[in-house]
Automatic annotation (TrEMBL):
This is Cytidylate kinase. The keyword Cytoplasm applies. Pfam families: Cytidylate_kin. Residues 7-220 form the Cytidylate kinase domain. Keywords: ATP-binding, Cytoplasm, Kinase, Nucleotide-binding, Transferase. The gene is cmk. It catalyses: CMP + ATP = CDP + ADP; dCMP + ATP = dCDP + ADP.
Length: 223
């Protein structure tokens, strides 16, 4: 076991991981680490360098010169790529549709996993992603696997997008989420899978408050 406290939250797209993790991090005064934002930032870096997302070797060559930094923001967290704020642009459809490919490259994962472990080494963290409980923090004291039905996840993303003026249809969102679920669960390295010692929390039909309260209870029982 590690000296500091580590909470791992994994699960498929739009299960509520980052929403729940941010609230818990504020309540517990832990550092929140959004690992999906790191994979998204590398995907954006590839695009900005004019690379094809298939150009694995060139994307890998970008890694040593790619600095990803988080800063607290209101609300949530600001993300910087080489000192340029990319908080919004990493959520674009272009990045969303290509991030699963870029994150399937072994050297990309190795590099980001090492950055994530460094952050979690010396402070209390709550980290969300796909492989946190299985690969990044296998000794985390609390591991949650957060799920919800595909249709509910698409509805949640749809409502969120409307507030940002994005108009992708519900059917397209459902399709995009299913494709990403498939890619994330079937890749060779660190696929999305529930860790043996993770607690499954199905959030279908549950409000954010209900989920926060359920996970807070789980954390209390493990402290
Ligand atoms: O927020 P959303 O669920 O849409 O995704 P995200 O957490 O921002 O992650 C974006 C993508 O990055 C995922 O679909 C995965 O392909 C990849 N990812 C990963 O491979 N491993 C992680 N630990 C986190 C994200
Ligand atoms: O990080 P992840 O992709 O797993 O999901 P998210 O970005 O935290 O949540 C996607 C959307 O679902 C957000 O708009 C949340 O407000 C919403 N949500 C919800 O309606 N009910 C929940 N129990 C959890 C999240």
């Amino acid at each position: 076991m590690t000296k500091n406290f580590q909470i791992a939250i994994d699960g498929p797209a739009s299960a509520g991981k980052s929403t729940i993790a941010k609230i818990l991090a504020t309540n517990l005064k832990y550092v929140y680490v959004d690992t999906g934002a790191m994979y998204r930032a590398i995907t954006l870096a590839a695009s900005r360098a004019g690379l094809s997302y298939e150009a694995e070797e060139e994307i890998i060559a970008l890694l040593p010169k790619t600095v990803i930094r988080f800063e607290p923001g209101t609300p949530g967290q600001r993300v910087f790529l080489n000192d340029d704020e990319v908080t919004e642009v990493i959520r674009s459809t272009e990045v969303t549709n290509n991030v699963s490919l870029v994150s399937s490259y072994a050297a990309v994962r190795e590099d980001l996993v090492s950055r994530q472990r460094n952050i979690a080494n010396s402070q209390n963290v709550i980290m969300d992603g796909r492989d946190i409980g299985t690969t990044v923090l296998p000794n985390a004291q609390v591991k949650i696997f957060l799920v919800a039905s595909v249709s509910e996840r698409a509805q949640r993303r749809y409502k969120e997008n409307l507030t940002k003026g994005m108009t992708t249809s519900l059917a397209d969102l459902e399709k995009d989420i299913s494709v990403r679920d498939y890619k994330d669960s079937h890749r060779e390295i660190s696929p999305l899978v529930q860790a043996k010692d993770a607690i499954l929390v199905d959030t279908t039909g549950q409000s954010i408050e209900e989920v926060v309260s359920k996970i807070t209870e789980i954390i209390k029982n493990n402290q």
